[in-house]
Specification:
Helix 2 packs across helix 3. This protein has a 4-stranded antiparallel beta sheet with strand order 1-3-4-6, with helices on one face. The chain has a two-stranded antiparallel sheet with strand order 2-5. It is 37% helix and 15% strand. The chain has 155 residues and is α+β, with helices and mostly antiparallel strands.
Length: 155
């Protein structure tokens, strides 16, 4: 049985099943995604010992184009430990026993991270409770206090 080479550059998949659905205007340089297969860890018996099903995706972050500077900063913060000092993203997927499914899992994770960085988080505006809301809260507390005090026996 011939094993695939440990490292092979692969363009993002095309076609209906494996297409990466990136936000409009965002693209990844063709050939920038490097996928490599290795033996998966954990239980699985002979399958784990014989078959290279674990997939590792590597991508140089400058290969992602079309993100605004703030979205790019959000992407860097979302990646966290998955981003090394060279600016290279490393994603690993070994959930499935199928190499193809693990490959798709890596690509889906990358797509999801880019979508999260693309979306601008909503700004939270601080609000004050209304006078009626404060009054209802205090009435509720008073009522609860009376209920508990009535349960106590006279000593």
């Amino acid at each position: 049985m011939s094993d695939s080479p440990p490292t092979s550059p692969a363009p993002p998949p095309t076609g209906p099943a494996g297409a990466m659905r990136l936000p409009a205007g965002v693209s990844i340089t063709p050939g920038a995604i490097v996928l490599s297969a290795s033996r998966s860890s954990g239980p699985g018996g002979q399958n784990v010992n014989k078959v290279n099903t674990r997939m590792e995706l590597r991508l140089s972050l400058p290969a992602v184009t079309g993100l605004s500077p703030t979205a790019f900063a959000r992407l860097r913060s979302l990646l966290g430990k998955r981003l090394n000092s060279l600016g290279e993203v490393r994603l690993v997927c070994q959930i499935s026993r199928s190499q193809e499914m693990n490959k798709q899992g890596c690509l889906d994770a990358l797509t999801e991270l880019i979508h999260q960085a693309w979306d601008v988080p909503a700004i939270r505006h601080r609000t004050k409770p209304s006078r009626g809301a404060k009054q209802r809260r205090l009435e509720s507390k008073k009522h609860r206090s009376e209920t508990k005090s009535q349960r106590r026996g006279v000593e």
